[in-house]
Each structure stands twice: as C-alpha cells, then as structure tokens.
Amino acid sequence: MVHSDVLYVVSELATDITVIVGDVKFYLHKFPLLSKSAHLQKLVTGEHNDEIYIPEIPGGSAAFEICAKFCYGMTVTLNAYNVVAARCAAEYLGMHETIEKGNLTYKIDVFLSSSIFRSWKDSIIVLQSTKALMPLSEELKLVSNCLESIAVKASADISKVDWSYTYNRKKLPEENGNNPNWNGVRNRSVPKDWWVEDLCELEIDVYKRVIVSIKNKGIVPNDVIGEALKAYAYRYLPGFSKGVLQCGDPLKYQSAVSTIVWLLPAEKGSVSSSFLSKLLKASIFLAFGDETKDELVRQMGQQLEEASVSDLLIRSPEGEAMTYDVNAVQKMVEVFLLQDHNSEIESLEEGNEIQEPRGPGILSDATKLMVAKLIDGYLAEVAKDPNLPSVKFIDLAEMVSGIARPSHDGLYRAIDMYLKEHPGIGKSDKKRICKLIDCKKLSADACIHAVQNERLPLRMVVQVLFFEQVRASASSGCSTPDLPKAIKDLTSGSHSSSRSATTNPEEDWDAVAMAEELKALKGELASLRLANGRGSSERNGDGKNGIDKAALSKMKGLLKSKKLFTKLWSSKGGGYGENSGSDSSESLGSANQEEAKSTPSRNRRHSVS
Prior knowledge:
Residues 15-80 form the BTB domain. By secondary structure, the chain is mainly alpha-helical.
C-alpha cells in the first residue's frame, strides 16, 4: 500500500472496491476483505457496493490500514502505541473467529496477553491510549486488563521486580561513570516505591483508577500510596511543591486536588503533615467547598504533633480580614484533643461489665507537649497580624493551656508579641492572656526580660520577681522566708488589703500598688536579697546549684536596681498601660548585669523578637 490520501494495493488485478475513511481513499479488492470482515460484508450488499464509507471506525485510517494489511496476509507490526486502535478497529469490522479461524481479534488478544500485559511500561502506555477510544476500549476489557496488570506489578514482592531508573530519578554515583570498579550491574535493592513516578504521566481520571486498583489489592503499604500521591501532585501541579500554585487551568487543578484528597489513605501517618498542608493551601486557593477542606483539617489534626509552624500558616480565603486562617488551626487542635476524649469513651463503652480504667487516652504526654510547643510558636507568628482579634488569640492559647509543659518561654514570647502589636487591647483581655503564663516556669533569661517589659501588668512583674528570688534562694541553700501579706496578695490573687472592699478585681489587676504595700514589698524584698547574699557568700564556689550562674547574676543586679523598684512601685497614678505605646524593642535574653544596673527610661520598650 502507498501512503498518501489515496492508498491502493500493488497487484496485477484491478481493484473492485473503494473504502473511504475520513479523507483517505483505499482502492482494494473485495475478496480478501469480505473473507475476514463481517461488517464489510454487510456494507457491500447495499446499492453502492463498489464504494463504502466508514468514517466512524475507531483509530481512523491508520487502524483500518492495519486491518486491511492483515486481510491481504501482509506483515503487520503491532506495539503498545497502536495495538488498542487496531483491536478496536478489528472489533468494529467484525474480524472474529466466527468469520475465519485465526482472525485479527484473536491474534491481537494473544499479543496483548503474551506481551503487552506482561510489561510494566507497555501496560502504562496502552492504558494511556485507551482514553481516546472509549467506550469501546472499556467494553473490550482493555482498560480493566491494563489496570489489573499495573496493580499486580506494583503489588509484587520487590525482590522479584526487575527495576530500572526512570528518567527523573537521580543516578547512583557508580552509574555516573565516576566509579572505575563498577561493572554495570546494579547491586542496590529495589525501593518499595519504585513505581510511583512512572504513573505520574497519566491523566488524573486514569490515575485515580490505577491507585484504586492498587489499593484494592491490599498489599502496598499506605505510606507508599501516600508517597505516590505526593509525587503525582508535585509533577501535575506547577508550584505545588512550594505551596503556591502557578497560573494555569483552574478546573484541571481542582479536579487533580479533589481526586488526590479523595485517594488519601484514612490511616494516620500515611502522608506527611507538610503534604496535607500544601493540599489545604491549594484547596483554599482554588476556592473548594467545605467538605474537602474539612477532611484535610481533620487529617492534619489527627497527626498535629508532626506538623511545623510553617505547615499551620495557612492564608485566609480572599475577603477575610485576618492574614491567616486561625479557625482552621483551632479545628485541628479540637480534632487532636478529641482523640484522647474518644478513646476514653470507647474504653468505657466496651462490654457491659465495669472495666478497670485504662489510663488517660491514646495521646502520650510527649505528644501533647509537642503540640503545645507548636501552638506557642504558631501564636507568636500570627500575633504579628494587626487584624487578629484578641478572642481568637486567647481561645487558641486556652485550648492547649491544660497541657503541662516544663517551660512557658514560648508562650511568654507569643503573648509579648501580641501585646506589642496590639497596644489597644482591653484590660480584661490582657488579664485573661497573662494568666495563661505560669511565672514559675519561665527561664532566668525570660524572667529578666519580663521584669523590664512595660507591657505586662504589675501583678505579673511582681510574681516574676518573687519566684526568681525564691529560685535563687533555693539554689544557694537558703530557706525561703515567709511571704509578707502584700506579696501574698499579689502572687496568689488575693485582694484582702485595705482597698479590697471597694476595688474592682479587673482594675486591681492593672493598678499600681498602694503606699503601704509598696513599703512592705521593698522591705521584704530587701530582706530576701540580704538573706540570699549571705547564703551565696557562705557557699561561694559551690557548683551544686541548678540555675545558670550568669542568669542568676543578672537577676541579682535587677533586684538591686533602685530605678527598677522606683519604676514598679513608687508612682501612684501610673500603670503598665501608660508605657505600651513605645516602639523600640529588645530580644529576650539580651539584658546583662550592667544594663540592669542602668535601667532604660520608661519610654523604652522591651519585647521578645
């Protein structure tokens, strides 16, 4: 046959039939065609039996040419790229065994089962080509056979896999030609996710069917499925790896993201929190419905301890005032904490008999601590948002306030940042925020920073001073003296002083101490300093104390500063609110003894950076 718009068979016999397929005319002979094609037999029996039209044949003129060559007994070359079109065309022409033994449909089916479906690469190529020939390729079970072949091979024992690198995998050092002793034989074991990149070339609808088939086998671990979905997202969605989708077809991206989310294994830890975060950011960018976003938030909440602060910094949808979606993070924390609650309920509901208590749920203390630290870091970042309402900040902080953590430095840093960025916060909110901090759990450096922090309420500053002095006394071996009434009032929240009957507790939180309280505070703290000084001199050089000596020295310097005490207690009309408008800042731990002895002016501002 000659390749042009007109094709004919080189033969001594004149052609007696013209077959028109699209724009191509085939000048052929009836006998070889009709002996193998039931469909052509029916067409030739019509009135115009010398010229027939078959514009709708699957695969077009190229596929018909293969069928025609087979009818003439010519050699036909089949491969993974043309076999689906040829099989569909043969089916359309009715080239079955009932017409002639060993007909084309039988021959192609043998070729598929003996060659194509035994090859990993060819099975993928054939699967890709079936999409253009739907629904016939589906009816002929070409799609299902490809899916089965791919799923079986992906689920096979890796010791039986003959694997080679795909084009975008990094070569081993010895394969780059740098190792003179390499003999060309790969000794490295096959990775369990060897197949994931080869499937990334598939369109999303086909890819979905492949992954479902692999999952249905129940052999491939969920973490490998998760790795496959991650590799596909990185390849299919430009910019996804950086958390920001590039411009493109939004409908195409929506289809891909929603399918990937639907395919995510339900088991905790199957995919990383970072990957879930990127999917959530993409779903918000593409304006998905709540169902997709809620599912991603739920999965992130189940493994919240594995997330980083950057994973939680999810931009709010367009039109919202807040920079970050704090509501989503609150839901994640709820899901995380509910795991403990639900496990306790399940343990109580098992059986009708009274069972022994099983302990506090499935979350370990270490896991809870990781989440508490994570939220502290997150709060420090979102605190910089001037549009973040105090109620959002407080509610999120309170959600993890019940988690015991040895240090409150992270929480202090977050709160200080919020007070710095929101100087107009109300007294009640400031009280509610600062009460979250346990002054006994602040490090020495944090204490030094706190006593110089003019954004903090007086009560908290006094608490910090007192507990640091107690810690210093304990480390030097001195017994802690009894607290004076004024310090007891300020550290315990009691309001039994002479003004307690008439003062509003909300105002008392912010108020400057009365003259008699200031006198008692000065006297008692002076006695504490003297006692600590004697203890220190008696134990000079003793290395058994558990506090950092440098930090302790800084605190002693602060306690000796008359200017500091004057700032805290000598004025009657001022409170911390007067000094909250200053703009200069100093990072935590930057104070030293010399700085403490020369306390900055009231206009200077100290904050945690």
